[in-house]
Amino acid sequence: MTYEKNPLFIFGEDKLYYQDFVEALKKVGVNKGDSIFVHSDISVFGKLSGGNRNSLLNSLIEALKESVGNGTIIMPTFTYSYCHNQVYDPEFSPSTVGVLSEHFRNFEKPGRTIHPIFSAAIFGKDKKKFKNVEADCFGKDSIFGKLHKEKAKILFFGAKFQSATFMHYVEQSYGVPYRYMKTFEGTLRIFGREFKDSCTYFVRNLDENVVYDASLFEKYLLENKLINKVKIGNGKLLLADTEVLYNEAFKQLDKDINFFRGDKR
């Protein structure tokens, strides 16, 4: 296959190939049969080698597919539609969280959750387990609750740990006092038909100028070898178990309820 032969990225005097990503994914701890939720920022790996962009994106998705084998790949395709008074259409509303997630949304037409703020695209054997989600953004039957229940892993594919939306599910489960439940109303469009709809979102209290900051938690996880890290090109991969993130975050919140508040440091 051509994507196995052509370089994908250039960094310094070196080049990154398809196989480099497959090996890095294995090294960071992605195994056959895993369910992985992928936050991505492919711009950090290096300069694009000059090939076709769709070919590059296909190659990266194929590397992820090879790594999980008969597992499941889930990518955030967040739209924040109801936050911006926009109609949410799971078939057509584009992802706002990166080119790889938007390409994946259209790749072999994976299933997509019907959620107007935090939707996700799902490909693999356990698609049915993850696809049906509740209206509460961070409830037990949200995509994040299902990731926890199914003991999925979260992969930061070049993305920063700060992007881990799963941590807001943890904050809601714990009941942190600096966020509150807010209802967003909007229009849901399914196969051309429109419906009035609403969802709940555990939002920051802006009156308190709450600033979310996960840097201390990331440092703690790395120092205690609770999260895996592998360098690739100019970027890195991080991999964490949802169960570990949940339990360790609870421990930190027990000690300091403002552990995730950058404005309190």
UniProtKB/TrEMBL annotation:
One MF term in the entry's GO annotations: aminoglycoside 3-N-acetyltransferase activity
Protein name (Swiss-Prot/TrEMBL): Aminoglycoside N(3)-acetyltransferase
Keyword Transport among UniProt keywords: no
Catalytic reactions of this protein: a 2-deoxystreptamine antibiotic + acetyl-CoA = an N(3)-acetyl-2-deoxystreptamine antibiotic + CoA + H(+)
Enzyme class: transferase
SUPFAM superfamilies, alphabetized: TTHA0583/YokD-like
Lineage, highest ranks first: Bacteria, Candidatus Staskawicziibacteriota
Protein family according to the UniProt entry: Belongs to the antibiotic N-acetyltransferase family.
Xref: InterPro entries: Amioglycoside_AcTrfase (IPR003679), Antibiotic_NAT-like (IPR028345)
Entry keywords, A to Z: Acyltransferase, Antibiotic resistance, Transferase
Enzyme Commission number(s): 2.3.1.-
Gene Ontology biological-process annotations: response to antibiotic
Top-level lineage group: Bacteria
